[in-house]
Request: fold
Amino acid sequence: MRYAVLSDVHSNHEALEAVLTDLDKKQIEDILFLGDAVGYGPDPNECIELLIKRCKILLAGNHDWGVLGLTDISYFNVYARAAILWTKSVLTEKNSKSLKLFPVKKDMKKGDILLVHSTPKEPETWHYLSTLWDAEINFHYFGNKFCFLGHSHQPFIIERLPSGEMVTHKESASIRKSGRYIINAGSVGQPRDGDPRACYVIIDDKNIETVRVPYDVEAVQNKMRKEDLPVLLIERLSVGR
Ligand code: ZN
Reply:
């Protein structure tokens, strides 16, 4: 097994291309995408089309559902909502139809791996898994060895030992036979962990590893300015917050 797991592209075509170019140099079985193809950034159509072309499995996230009218966007903050409305206005009918087919949760590799955008417990209500206590609760809502998720744009690896003890790994972990794992793949297109480089995860039979890839942040910011997208969304890409 050797998969690349991508999440939260958020219409950032430059970041997605940089990640895919990085993956071209590596031996990868399949690319898996955990949702939020759109929202925030300037290239929703290009990102959806490229993701469909390159990924084996594609999930939907809360921003995708927001654009499709499948989730209430009144709980989004004012900047996210503005970007959703702008995305709605430029999204092609064909891409909107494609996006509608993405599930919010998927089992794969004979049940070894669960993919979800937000949480295994309630994938359609878009809760965040941000504390060890959240992780402890959620470990009881799936039986797979690995659960990959995104949504918070902050990568982490949480391992649960048979004793119930939990270990947090920051950038990489070797896989133990007896361990179970919740892995946040971070965000390709809008990292929020203080590192502005695009983020994704590679898993093979032995290791889980977070990978960072630099991309042309300024090019994306210039496109966003041209489309009058909110300044806060433009500026945060430089600092990864
Ligand atoms: Zn997101």
In short: The pocket of zinc ion is lined by residues 8, 10, 36, 61, 63, 151, 153 (CB under 6 Å). The mean pLDDT is 97. The longest strand covers residues 198-204.
